[in-house]
Amino acid sequence: MLDSTNRRRCAAAFVAVLLTASFAARASAVADDVADEVRTVEQRRVAALTSRDYATLEKLLGDDLTYTHSNGRFENKAQFLNSLRSGDLEYRLMQHADVQVRPHPLEVPIRFTLVYVKRAGDWQLVAWQSAPLQNP
Fold first, then answer.
1. Considering the entire predicted model, what is its pTM?
2. Counting Cβ atoms within 10 Å, is residue 64 exposed (0-12), middle (13-18) or buried (19+)?
3. Largest alpha-carbon pair distance within the chain?
4. Given a cut of 80, is residue 86 above it in pLDDT?
5. Residue 61 is inside which H or E element, if any?
6. Distance CA 2, CA 8 (A)
7. Number of domains in the chain
């Protein structure tokens, strides 16, 4: 089990691997672990989003979140959560397949970028950006 100092070192090693690819096997294992953590937290975010679990979303979304919707609308964390709570924005179904998001019943093929930051041992989404695919 890694203490918080070693976790910070591992996160730094992961960044170094992305930038220099010089840490070989150990860095690869760290990168795999981090990738698994991010996949897991993204699954938790989608589950919370589709089940209207606002308490979980509060924890998973960073206070400095920038959320740019596929229609170009920009929201910060408070605005995004308010849109969800008011019913102005509703995610009934979201499936990740070939980097596509499919709200039900409308199918909108998009490409998206997610940025997660690990803070106090927990991953938080701090940026989302999506755009429609030109030729799905």
1. 0.57
2. exposed
3. 49
4. yes
5. strand 61-68
6. 9
7. 1
Q: Which domain holds residue 96?
A: 4-132
- What CATH number has the domain bearing residue 29? 3.10.450.50
Let me know: does 123 contact 43? Beta carbons within 8 Å: no
Tens digits of per-residue pLDDT, 39-83? 788 889 999 999 999 999 999 999 999 999 988 999 999 999 999
Specify the residue for token string 């999506």. Answer: 130
How many alpha carbons lie under 13 Å from residue 27 in its C-beta half-sphere? 13
Cβ-contact 116, 38 below 8 angstroms = yes
Q: What are phi and psi of 6, to 5 degrees?
A: -65, -35
Residue with tokens 């509060």: 58
